[in-house]
Request: fold
Amino acid sequence: MNIPTEPIGSIPRTAELLEAISSSDSENLEKLYNHAVEATVSAFEKTGSPVVTDGEQTKASFVTYPLHGSPNITEGGMKIPFADGHFRQLPLLTKGPFRYKNYAVQYLKKAQQFTGKPVKQAVISASALSLIYPPGGIEGYPQETFIEDLINECEKDIRQCLNNSAWKVQMDFTEGRLSLKLDPSGNVLQHFVDLNNRVFNRFSDEERKRLGIHVCPGGGHDSTNSADIDYTRFLPVLFKMNVGNYYLQYASETDRKKVLQTVKENMKPGQMVFLGVTDVNSSRIESKEEVRDTIIEAAEYIPVNQLGTTDDCGFSPFCDDISTTRETAFAKITARVEGTKMASQILAQKYHTISQ
Ligand SMILES: [Zn+2]
Reply:
């Protein structure tokens, strides 16, 4: 028995890289980007992680990468407040047609240059980007046309990664839980789920086994934007996503048994649930034994052949977020990898005994 373990995506950037990004020395930056991806992939390999990522070293943020350099984008979109008082603001679309300026496959290809290991790629959800359409509308470019363009582009973003041997393609849906805070009726959440399903429904069953969705209470500077929203209200709607893999923040939840029970009641046959076993917003490094015990407990609720592990979130979803050091991030990843291996052995023994 081998319980799969995968990262979410981002790793903190080095101070040198951040300085180069802010000084916009483009020639030097390209060199530093290559070096950063190579160093990150190599550090990933040292943890024993069977699946690696590019650490999102060359992305400004997990949400806005398709928009960078786009001519029809301006500042002043929706503000997302975090518990510690800081906020992030989305840009606004100024005119149609909407097209991505950057596709995620470029990050995948760069990482693949430096490793023979399977590389996982994150993409942003259609629902997150749907928020850049201005509330007042755009003359000659109705919202329905924008949504159709958006779904086409999101599908293209995913398909290119699948066609280029991505191990998995994970859609980041961090606004899911937040939506319940902004609209407690759940209508917005249902709308987001429907929108993303319009993307997932364009793929075959076989392709959907390589597609996943990641949710969390939104990480930034070690703070969150929706951890106060009851997870057990969110999960039943989430499991209506037509997708093969769920990457769920879990380690930082206070009532884990309640979460496990909700997952058990709502997950469907054939779906994999990757539980976060390391808390990315805490500097305390989990021990491998602690990770092992987290998994053993989860296996009482989730069938072991549908159980996997991950980190609660990326370690630095926005490039300027250096609240966690690279050393801490990789130490946590090592604990996840080793703890998952320990749990696999114990569970294999247990199920071998049962089947005899
Ligand atoms: Zn996350």
The longest helix spans residues 326-355. The domain at 15-355 is CATH 3.20.20.210 (TIM Barrel). The radius of gyration is 20 Å.
